[in-house]
Write a structure and sequence with these properties.
335 residues; alpha/beta; Rossmann fold; six-stranded parallel beta sheet; 11 helices; 12 strands; globular
């Protein structure tokens, strides 16, 4: 590969995975100084991708889950083939994600051997799921591995940050705590509601501002008992993804499940406490400097199971984590 590589990256579909993949983009920019990087990404993640300075052009591709979307892929392939890419790295493991680089006939097409798609690739790697962490899974496709020098870091613009802080009336006189109770994958990744409520009350007693952040406005019903209290505010379903990113960047502390917002908080160097249950902090850890946060994970015999619902029906991996424990862990980040 020459230093003037033109890369087409097929991006993952989950928020957290997209954030993690920025390490690969950073590595490519370090290794090939003059390289050009374009990415194909889900439309709802375009604005997030725009906060990655390594990316030149972003091409949204809107195809429903389990749909091949061949006509849409063909049209996009025809549109971008004039860019004469020299290499493509396909991060998802699905068959359909490798179609566009093959249609364009990009000379080097790199990905994992999954879903009988080997004939679409020119450089193939074997994948053992959960054997390595996600950042190294992506970087392996560039024959590299993760170092802190390529830690994900979204660009935060001061003028936009000021607008977001004013819009949501972020206090400058109190500590601002952001609680992120969602995890899109399933209930086995969500710390129980009653524990979030107790934790919010503990912060309120310390005269801190508490914000609930996420995309699901219907969750407000579960927290209605505390949303009438001063200093506890729901932003559930009220921010865009970019606004949520900027809001997290201005927080004194974020506490999250293993979720997309966890990875976003890590990428903007917010103090972060991450709660892991059915998933593994060794597989999808928040890529954050040690002084900025920590992971709470009990490592029970039954975990990680990587299930959406607890197969043993007790959810001890999360129930064994108390709100008192999280609160006491948080104190050092708020001094």
């Amino acid at each position: 590969m020459s230093p003037r590589e033109k890369f087409l990256i097929i991006s993952p579909s989950w928020i957290g995975d997209l954030i993690i993949s920025q390490s690969l983009l950073k590595y490519l920019k370090q290794e090939y100084i003059d390289c050009h990087i374009d990415i194909i990404v889900r439309p709802d993640l375009v604005d997030l991708a725009k906060m990655m300075p390594e990316v030149s052009n972003i091409y949204p591709l809107d195809i429903k889950h389990k749909s091949l979307g061949l006509s849409k892929r063909y049209r996009l392939a025809n549109r971008i083939k004039i860019n004469s890419y020299s290499s493509s790295i396909i991060l998802p493991s699905s068959f359909k994600s490798a179609i566009i680089p093959w249609l364009i006939n990009i000379p080097i097409r790199i990905g994992y051997k999954k879903e009988l798609r080997s004939f679409l690739l020119t450089k193939k790697y074997s994948l053992v799921k959960h054997k390595d962490n996600m950042s190294n899974r992506y970087l392996k496709l560039a024959d590299s591995s993760y170092t802190d020098s390529i830690r994900p870091s979204l660009t935060i613009e001061a003028n936009i940050l000021d607008i977001v802080r004013k819009k949501y009336q972020v206090s400058n006189s109190k500590k601002n705590i952001v609680l992120c109770p969602e995890a899109e994958y399933g209930k086995a990744k969500r710390w129980p509601t009653e524990k979030w409520i107790d934790l919010a009350k503990r912060f309120k007693e310390r005269n801190h501002n508490v914000y609930l952040l996420g995309k699901n406005k219907s969750l407000e019903e579960e927290y209605e008992d505390i949303l009438n209290l001063d200093s506890i505010v729901s932003l559930l379903g009220k921010t865009s993804l970019v606004e949520a990113t900027y809001f997290l960047s201005s927080a004194d502390l974020a506490i999250t499940n293993d979720s997309g917002l966890m990875h976003i908080a890590a990428s903007v160097e917010t103090n972060l406490i991450s709660i892991f249950g059915s998933s593994s902090p060794f597989y999808t850890p928040p890529l954050i400097k040690n002084e900025f946060g920590e992971v709470i994970y009990k490592g029970l015999e039954c975990s990680p199971c990587f299930k959406r619902e607890c197969p043993l029906h007790h959810l001890d991996c999360l129930n064994d984590i108390s709100s008192k424990e999280i609160f006491e862990k948080s104190i050092k980040y708020l001094r």
